[in-house]
Fold this protein.
Amino acid sequence: MKIKENVDVNKIILGNCIEKMLDFPENSFDLIFADPPYNLQLEKTLNRPDYSKVNGVKENWDKFKSFGDYDKFTYNWLNVTKRVLKENGSLWVIGTYHNIFRVGKILQDLGFWILNDVVWIKTNPMPNFRGTRFSNAHETIIWCTKNKNSKYTFNYNLMKSLNDDLQMRSNWTFPICNGSERLKFNGLKIHPTQKPESILTRIILSATKPGDIILDPFFGTGTTGAVSKKYNRKFIGIENNKKYIKFAKQRIKKVVPIKDLDSLNFKENKEQIRIPFGQLIEFNLIKPGEILYDLNKRWNAKVKIDGSLISENFKGSIHTLAAKLQNLPSCNGWTFWYKSEKNNSISINLLREKVRSELK
């Protein structure tokens, strides 16, 4: 497959990401995930209390002469990234306190619109061996769009369902990449900052749809490619280290995509058929004069023939009445109101889904 007949997808490109992104047509990618150099500024060897050496990031790609050089590098890659990102696409950038604030400032200077900063809380962070600071137990991910008018993809209800029907928050708790997932050769890590697939899974499922095209300009050992392939997204990776590419290709080749494509389809509410409350009356699932109540039975209201509800003091739609009774600015009446059926409390939202299924 190709992007606008010019760029092959599901492949890794060897080279400098700034130069290679110039080869892509404008507005090519639905999502870009970037794990750029952090500029950790490590100067001394770090040892554990037992004097064993900590294998930190010591590769040349993470070394910059000054903050000015790092800012110039960041501006350049973000500038070309904006060019190839679709108008309604989104960009995710991960970093630590060493670089993320500089990245955020440059993102805003370039006109990107920040939607969230997600905090990845590590369940197994590296200790601060010298005991001179707090253990650095999180990284920050900035989620942004090309501009504030972008109509970006956000699978809100999918995220909510994955989180036991609670709104997904911006603090994500995952372990760092370890165990069998961590790529090693002769007992040594192949890449010092390999990201766990769980992080990329949540990003890709939240902000893309099957068939979308994802770019990772700092591909490393291919976490983005592996997750993209698994969930039937297309990808392009750019990496200037031949060793990383070798192991990334081996890794991605072993990934088996989910074959049951039906299981990947999840319709957000805004894409589903709109069902007005009055239609439940027309389908004889709710009767005029029937009493609805909240789950804790603090409030109740009678159903009118026009689909409105009336209580002792208020009258209105299922939404406005629920809000008035609770003295709230708004309330989702579909999840607030219940009816009694055979001594059970039935959510009217379940009745709505019954109507919706019959209308498909």
In short: The longest helix spans residues 67-84. Confidence is low (pLDDT under 50) at residues 46-54.
